[in-house]
Amino acid sequence: MTGTQLHELTALEQAAAVRDRTVSPVELVEAALARVEALDAGLGAFVTVTPERALAAAAEAEARVLGGGDLPPLLGVPTAIKDLNNTAGVRTTFGSAVYADFVPGFDDAVVTRLAAAGTVSVGKTNTPEFGFPCYTDNDVAGPARCPWDRTRLAGGSSGGAAVAVAAGMLPFAQGSDGGGSIRIPASVNGLFGIKPTRGRVSNAPLGSDVTGLGTNGPLARTVRDAAAMLDAMAGPVLGDTTWAPPLPPGETFLGCADRPAGRLRIGRALEFPVPGVGLEPEVATALDDAARLLESLGHEVADVPGGLLPPDLLGLFERVWSLSGATLVVPPGRGGELRPLTRELRARGLALSAQAAMEALNALRVFSRRYVRATDAFDVLLAPVTTMTPRPLGWFDADGDGAADFARQVRYAAFPALYNVTGQPAVSVPLHWTGDGLPIGTMLVGRPADEATLIALSAQLEEARPWAHRHPPGWHADA
């Protein structure tokens, strides 16, 4: 590895180096931990770092390499788990002071899957309280800051995961997405992120299927790394109520990154979920630029007909989103420790009648069927991730008003949530940087259960306009 710092390697390059014994899992994990120690104080990527556990797991991985035989595909590659996911024996705060000392006794299924693929977690990444906001700040670890401009928020709710990858602490990281929570931080931090189709990645053992909005997925610097991580995550667990059809035998998501995309019909979906909200000029420029790039690659780009979004869509989503607040387990007498936004959403959820909740859920499911059918003439949809450039620290919540905070988030990031409602797979592709050096991602949306086309198309875009060489300030700093 002479002449190459380990953090510059992709996840797949690290895995290959472990297999051919040019680098050891212990060296990879030590390098990742060193960068976390050197960089994280100014970025806020982590809530909890677990060096002893990580080094012990790396030593076990090293023993497997020396023992020979079949090895898991990502053996020894460092990663981290979002602090919304349960990790046995490791503090899991859900971004809330109420759970600051909580240590679960079990792993979520996605944690088990990633470990089985050979990855080594170095800790828990920062997330907002219970994952509600589209930015990352909490009373446990403070804000996650965009490494491209540390006066800006890193997005959320997988903001810590995105910062860790963008700053070169990790080659890839696990996130989750219930309303844009992978795609928004991917856009803000110049990464590639995948929100898989509903049921592609199990939410076992406790993940709620009441709303059907949330799913786990990868954040990475390259399409191939994200695809490899999705391969590791994907698959149902016995008892899941929703699951996606598997890829054909012998196929992988990583393999999809190496196949031709073909000529696709791409629909530009510009109908605003929020009336009266427009795109900032830089975001509009990024979207137009992406459309021209797609056309230059031989794809047909046409506008999706308007009138597909009912006028009450936002209200329906808000009611369903607040249902998650109604199910929060808050110890008696500690509700006042919740942040204003959480208190607001919890109050809204608890105030809903059973009839109102069911009517909202049913209306969204009817809308989803109609929307998917109405856009089925397109292979892929093209849309913005956010309406604005990355927001300054305190932009959403400086006034301490939970309702105003939520209203700002709606204006900023209503587009991604639409595809949590429909359950379609969606990605954020880092194709544009502003004149000030801030990334702006572009969203691509696939047909239900068709991550394969999204990955193939994203790989084509990455080849046409590479982005992995772009790094934020501090990337070349010695750990």
UniProtKB/TrEMBL annotation:
Taxonomic lineage from the root: Bacteria, Bacillati, Actinomycetota, Actinomycetes, Geodermatophilales
Organism: Geodermatophilus normandii
GO molecular function, one term: catalytic activity
Protein name according to UniProt: Amidase
Segments forming domain Amidase: 27-454
Pfam families: Amidase (PF01425)
Domain of life: Bacteria
Entry similarity comment: Belongs to the amidase family.
